[in-house]
Design a protein that fits this description.
By secondary structure, the chain is an alpha/beta fold. The protein has one domain: Rossmann fold (3-Layer(aba) Sandwich). It has 9 helices and 14 strands. A 10-stranded mixed beta sheet has the order 1-2-3-5-4-8-9-10-11-14, sandwiched between helices. Strands 6-7 form a two-stranded antiparallel sheet. It has a two-stranded antiparallel sheet with strand order 12-13. Strand 4, helix 2 and strand 5 form a beta-alpha-beta unit. Helix 1 crosses helix 7 and helix 4 runs parallel beside helix 6.
Length: 364
């Protein structure tokens, strides 16, 4: 399994650890929106308790646009929950450890970040891009010391909640009353997106908040609850009584959908996945689960459809991993529905249906 998953994990982080520190705009200390660059991205270093996994600085990106329409994107890039997985000496490293890596630069991505792309649903929106560098699906609240199989200690700062909260505080300070906020994320960021959509809804009761998880719907494994505990995912939570219904010993990533849906039943929740996603299959293997991701995705989707009447999902053919960050977003379709059109309707608050390649026999 190592050789198969190794290539997939290498593709997930997109670049080698040592290749991450490329040229970037000047770092700024949380400038007001009026000072953000009109034509490009501004890099903001919030400081405070924010940190990446190995102690390097956390930074996020803002592109000025319509102040009434804000898209918050949580980037992905693997995960780690043991000494061997978290150790930077592991090749390929199965998570993105630095905010400066190329995969964490929105100006290097396509899809929703290409304002020149015809049909981009978010062209002209204010965009906040939150890099991923903590190995904890943006949910961590604990500094952990893991031991490798060789007996070495590996200290990891699982500061996912602190880092995202810093980006949200900037949004709150600079966007007084947006009309529409789209909270989304790819891969690991998809896992956290329903939780942060709930936080945004709490801060902006006047806004229409929409959530979309991109590429994390197939994670169904008994090992998930232990990983969430290792990260401290159920620490530093808001005082929401809905979390009392989550049994930590058997918690799943879908529980974050359930909690947010129970607290904010009018919030539109949604997910996109390729039914044979190779990266999700690889990480399921690391969790000790070998069942095909397609079956696990279908089971998760059925459970959420039962528990959350309004959730909508788009299951597309193929083995790809996430769509919003890439040009493939504009060519993906199922049941005659173009993904870009489906996302646009979501973003504009128009009703969408659940779409699946299983129904038009286009999955294979």
């Amino acid at each position: 399994m190592k050789s198969r998953s190794g290539a997939l994990l290498a593709g997930l982080v997109l670049s080698a650890v040592t290749a991450g520190c490329s040229a970037r705009p000047d770092v700024q200390q949380a400038p007001p929106l009026a000072e953000a660059k009109a034509a490009g991205w501004t890099l903001i270093e919030p400081g405070g308790d924010t940190l990446c996994a190995t102690g390097t600085p956390f930074r996020f990106h803002v592109r000025q646009g319509d102040p009434e329409r804000v898209m918050i994107f949580l980037n992905g890039g693997g995960a780690c929950w043991s000494g061997d997985l978290c150790d930077l000496a592991t090749e390929p490293t199965p998570y993105t450890p630095f905010a400066d890596m190329e995969s964490n630069q929105p100006d290097q991505l396509d899809g929703v970040f290409d304002n020149r792309a015809a049909g981009n649903p978010f062209a002209g929106w204010t965009q906040v891009f939150v890099p991923y560098c903590t190995g904890d699906a943006h949910l961590g609240a604990r500094d952990a010391t893991y031991k490798t199989s060789a007996g070495a200690d590996v200290m990891i700062h699982h500061r996912g909640k602190t880092n995202v909260q810093a980006a949200l505080e900037w949004v709150y300070a600079n966007q007084a009353a947006p009309e529409r906020v789209f909270v989304t994320g790819g891969s690991a960021g998809a896992i956290a997106s329903p939780y942060y959509a709930g936080l945004v809804s709490e801060h902006y009761p006047q806004a229409e908040v929409i959530q979309l998880a991109d590429g994390a719907g197939g994670y169904r494994s008994p090992g998930i609850s232990g990983v969430l505990e290792a990260w401290g995912a159920f620490e530093a939570l808001p005082d929401w009584p809905e979390f009392a219904s989550v049994e930590r010993a058997t918690a799943t990533t879908e529980d974050f959908f359930r909690v947010t849906a129970a607290r904010y039943p009018d919030l539109q929740l949604a997910r996109f996945d390729n039914v044979d996603d190779e990266v999700q299959q690889s990480f399921l293997g690391l969790l000790g689960t070998g069942e095909p991701v397609r079956a696990l995705l279908a089971a998760n989707s059925a459970d959420l459809a039962r528990d959350i009447a309004g959730i909508r999902t788009f299951s597309a053919p193929g083995m790809g991993h996430t769509a919003l960050r890439y040009g493939v977003m504009y060519s993906t379709e199922a049941e005659g529905v173009q993904l870009a059109d489906w996302v646009r309707d979501l973003a504009e608050g128009r009703p969408v249906k659940t779409v699946s390649c299983e129904r038009d026999n286009s999955c294979d």
